[in-house]
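Before the break, one more example. Copy the sequence into your notebook; we will annotate it together after we see the structure.
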Amino acid sequence: MKKASRDFLDQAHDPRDPSPWLAMYLDRSTPIDEAVKHAWLVDSSSASRQYLLPFVRPLARTMIVLIQVLKVLTPRKLAFSRALHRLLAWGMENFIRPEANWLILRHFHIGSQVLAFIARNAPVEVSTNPLTPARISDVREEMFLVHDLNLYNFIIRLNTALQREGRELAHVETPDLSMIEQPPLRLEDMPRRRRNFLDLQSSIELFTPIYQLLLTDSDFWRATNSLQLDETIGLYAATLLDARDHLVLLNNRHPLVPMSTLRAGFRLTLHGLSTEMLHGLLVRMRAAREAAPTDQSAAAGDASP
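Here is what the structure looks like once it is written out:
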């Protein structure tokens, strides 16, 4: 596949050899922030993803199988969560591309905002635990593990409260979008040394067996199967917004059917993208609402003598 330049619009369009990256960049069929789309496609079109990922992926999946065999012979509660997160932060700082690091840190922010949106518009009180890392070193505080725990705990708390009060999620005519905003993270602040070359998908594939090795079986299984909850969170948001047509963008499989951990790396990439699209949809809705009074005032001014 053709390598993309950092500015996709600089590429000349050749009808006999069209750039897939230019086509994806120009497409507006999915709700996603323009800066996020640009960073995603720059990362996806990198040499690392094109030439390294095909070797990394089968190696990582083989390691998952071997580590699973090893886990059978080791104590079930043996875990090194703090060491894992220090290792992940070190890898992000020293080897991962700036676009990938930016997208990873953004994910904690926007995931927290999406849960806050559902909580604020639910007919019951439900607490959340926002994760808002300002820098890569913040992930050392077991942030990846807490991110997974937050999702399960939120669903349990929400549905326990709904059942206790005999309520259900329902369409909200004017949903509260006050928590939806762009995270205060800048791409230019991410490490940009020569050795920061590793793309997002290759990083995730390499990260997955390390995650499995240094956590308990229970923690790893729970983390990989949290990806199927994309469908659950999508349904909650679609119910509140009465926008179920957007569920076509979700494809991380049915939450009631646990999948093999072998494809966790690929599905984690889908998880990040689906969260960005849901957040992008909410950002658009908030922007349209905030622009509406201005438009109405302008129209009133035009109509006055």
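Residues 19-71+83-289 form one domain. The chain has one domain: 19-71+83-289. Try to locate both features in your own notes.
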